[in-house]
Amino acid sequence: MSDQTDEFFGEPIYTYTDQQALDDGVLVVVAGEGGVNRVTRAVFDHFVKPIGDPAFQVFNVTPLMEAIRVMLKIELKEGWRTATYQGKGLWLVPNEVGGFTLMFPEDY
Protein backbone atom coordinates (compact mmCIF):
# COMPACT_ATOMS: atom_id res chain seq x y z
CA MET A 1 0.00 0.00 0.00
CA SER A 2 1.13 3.58 -0.38
CA ASP A 3 2.48 5.54 2.56
CA GLN A 4 -0.43 8.02 2.21
CA THR A 5 -2.98 5.23 2.41
CA ASP A 6 -1.24 3.67 5.42
CA GLU A 7 -1.21 7.06 7.18
CA PHE A 8 -4.92 7.54 6.54
CA PHE A 9 -6.19 4.01 7.28
CA GLY A 10 -3.33 2.47 9.26
CA GLU A 11 -1.16 -0.51 8.36
CA PRO A 12 -3.11 -3.15 6.41
CA ILE A 13 -3.88 -6.47 8.06
CA TYR A 14 -4.60 -8.11 4.71
CA THR A 15 -3.88 -7.18 1.10
CA TYR A 16 -5.98 -8.01 -1.93
CA THR A 17 -4.13 -7.63 -5.22
CA ASP A 18 -5.42 -6.01 -8.35
CA GLN A 19 -5.25 -9.35 -10.16
CA GLN A 20 -7.23 -11.09 -7.42
CA ALA A 21 -9.90 -8.38 -7.61
CA LEU A 22 -10.10 -8.70 -11.41
CA ASP A 23 -10.29 -12.51 -11.19
CA ASP A 24 -13.07 -12.25 -8.58
CA GLY A 25 -15.00 -9.65 -10.60
CA VAL A 26 -14.66 -6.99 -7.89
CA LEU A 27 -12.77 -4.72 -10.32
CA VAL A 28 -13.40 -4.10 -14.01
CA VAL A 29 -10.76 -2.94 -16.51
CA VAL A 30 -11.71 0.28 -18.33
CA ALA A 31 -9.94 2.57 -20.76
CA GLY A 32 -10.93 5.87 -19.19
CA GLU A 33 -9.45 9.30 -19.59
CA GLY A 34 -6.78 10.64 -17.28
CA GLY A 35 -5.29 7.26 -16.46
CA VAL A 36 -8.48 5.74 -15.06
CA ASN A 37 -8.00 2.04 -15.75
CA ARG A 38 -10.19 0.34 -13.12
CA VAL A 39 -13.69 0.76 -11.71
CA THR A 40 -15.34 -1.34 -9.06
CA ARG A 41 -18.04 -3.75 -10.19
CA ALA A 42 -20.59 -1.71 -8.21
CA VAL A 43 -19.65 1.49 -10.09
CA PHE A 44 -19.69 -0.36 -13.42
CA ASP A 45 -23.11 -1.86 -12.75
CA HIS A 46 -24.50 1.49 -11.58
CA PHE A 47 -23.38 3.56 -14.58
CA VAL A 48 -23.16 1.03 -17.46
CA LYS A 49 -26.36 -0.39 -18.94
CA PRO A 50 -26.84 -3.05 -21.63
CA ILE A 51 -28.14 -1.96 -25.02
CA GLY A 52 -30.38 -4.13 -27.14
CA ASP A 53 -30.25 -7.92 -27.07
CA PRO A 54 -28.46 -9.12 -23.89
CA ALA A 55 -27.03 -12.07 -25.82
CA PHE A 56 -24.69 -9.68 -27.70
CA GLN A 57 -23.27 -7.96 -24.58
CA VAL A 58 -23.30 -4.41 -25.94
CA PHE A 59 -23.13 -1.72 -23.26
CA ASN A 60 -23.69 2.02 -23.06
CA VAL A 61 -20.55 3.24 -21.27
CA THR A 62 -21.28 6.94 -21.84
CA PRO A 63 -22.61 7.55 -18.29
CA LEU A 64 -19.51 5.91 -16.80
CA MET A 65 -17.15 7.95 -18.98
CA GLU A 66 -19.01 11.13 -17.99
CA ALA A 67 -18.61 10.26 -14.30
CA ILE A 68 -14.88 9.77 -14.89
CA ARG A 69 -14.62 13.15 -16.66
CA VAL A 70 -16.40 14.87 -13.79
CA MET A 71 -14.10 13.26 -11.21
CA LEU A 72 -10.99 14.28 -13.17
CA LYS A 73 -12.06 17.93 -12.82
CA ILE A 74 -11.99 17.68 -9.00
CA GLU A 75 -8.86 19.01 -7.31
CA LEU A 76 -6.54 16.34 -5.95
CA LYS A 77 -6.39 16.01 -2.17
CA GLU A 78 -3.45 13.86 -1.10
CA GLY A 79 -3.59 11.97 -4.40
CA TRP A 80 -7.35 11.27 -4.21
CA ARG A 81 -10.41 12.93 -5.66
CA THR A 82 -13.73 12.74 -3.84
CA ALA A 83 -17.09 14.13 -4.89
CA THR A 84 -20.78 13.47 -5.16
CA TYR A 85 -22.06 12.81 -8.66
CA GLN A 86 -25.73 12.16 -9.45
CA GLY A 87 -26.39 11.73 -5.73
CA LYS A 88 -23.67 9.10 -5.23
CA GLY A 89 -20.39 9.58 -3.40
CA LEU A 90 -17.41 8.70 -5.58
CA TRP A 91 -13.70 8.31 -4.95
CA LEU A 92 -11.01 8.34 -7.61
CA VAL A 93 -7.90 6.81 -6.06
CA PRO A 94 -4.46 5.72 -7.28
CA ASN A 95 -4.14 1.99 -7.83
CA GLU A 96 -1.30 -0.52 -7.83
CA VAL A 97 -1.12 -0.74 -11.62
CA GLY A 98 -0.14 2.89 -12.19
CA GLY A 99 -3.58 4.30 -12.85
CA PHE A 100 -6.71 5.27 -10.98
CA THR A 101 -9.73 3.34 -9.72
CA LEU A 102 -13.22 4.87 -9.58
CA MET A 103 -15.21 3.50 -6.65
CA PHE A 104 -18.02 4.20 -4.25
CA PRO A 105 -16.72 4.85 -0.70
CA GLU A 106 -18.51 1.72 0.49
CA ASP A 107 -16.46 -0.33 -2.02
CA TYR A 108 -13.25 0.36 -0.10
Could you walk me through the main structural features you see in this protein, from its secondary elements to its overall organization?
It is a single chain. With 108 residues, this protein is α+β, with helices and mostly antiparallel strands. The chain has one domain (3-81, 99-107). Helix content is 30%, strand content 28%. The protein contains four helices and seven strands; from the N terminus they run H-H-E-E-H-E-E-H-E-E-E. It has a five-stranded mixed beta sheet with strand order 1-2-7-6-5. A two-stranded antiparallel ribbon has the order 3-4. The longest helix has 11 residues, at 62-72. The radius of gyration is 14 Å and the shape is globular. 19% of the residues are buried. The model has no long low-confidence stretch (mean pLDDT 91).
**SSE-based structural type:** alpha+beta
Q: Return the domain count.
A: 1
Uncertain residue ranges: none
Number of strands: 7
Mean pLDDT: 91
Strand order of the largest sheet: 1-2-7-6-5
**H/E series, N to C?**
HHEEHEEHEEE
Note the overall shape. Answer: globular
Rg of Cα set: 14 Å
Largest sheet: 5 strands, mixed
Estimate what percentage of residues fall within beta strands.
Answer: 25-35%
Relative helix content: 25-40%
First and last CA, distance: 13 Å
Number of contiguous helices: 4
